Amino acid sequence: NEHPGYRGSGFADYKNPINDYIEWTVEIDVPGTYNLGFTYANADSAPRTLQLSDGGTDLGILPFSSTSSWTSWSFLSGPNVFLTRGIHKIRATATGSSGPNLDELSLSYTSASPSSAFARKSIQNNGFIDYLSDQAHKAYPNPFNESTKICYSLKEKAHVVLSVYTLGGQHMKLLVDNIQGAGNYLATFNASEYKAGMYVYRLQIGDKVKVGKLIKNK
């Protein structure tokens, strides 16, 4: 816990160059396609790569680019994977010169089904699990051309931090960073200066984090 900026009670640190791994036990209530996202830090100038797997099933290799320092934490949107109902063992194994420091694994439900009330599970390394409904946060219009609005609700007073990142985890713009009372809020993301593509917004409310995708049209 010597590198501040992480959430919860600590983070996971890879000690050996290869074959070290971190494994999360995840219980899926609603089967479907989920995006695996990681909050991490990497002070090396070169990317550090992790081999992802689910109970022995290969999910591919994911590079974690440099964040400049061990106290600079970024979000990286990883692969979309189909998860069946039940228990899954998501493992991230170091493949090269050790792995990055990992603060959190996020699973974002990407199904288009409007009947699902389950949108995301947030699994921190300290075991905290946060269940969020698909109405807890959203962006509209999405896809969008010049700008979009990210709306969210607070049940009680909390410190809110809302930022937009590239899929590679590079911070683009800070939209909100203050204490807000209970209620409904809108934050506008003006993307006129950015090229078309997919981006990620990260909404932190207190010690809970919500993640969503943004798609800017050409």
TrEMBL record:
Organism domain of life: Bacteria
Record-level Gene Ontology MF annotations: carbohydrate binding
Protein name: CBM35
CBM6 domain segment(s): 1-108
Pfam families: Por_Secre_tail
Higher taxonomy: Bacteria, Pseudomonadati, Bacteroidota, Chitinophagia, Chitinophagales
Record-linked NCBIfam families: Por_Secre_tail
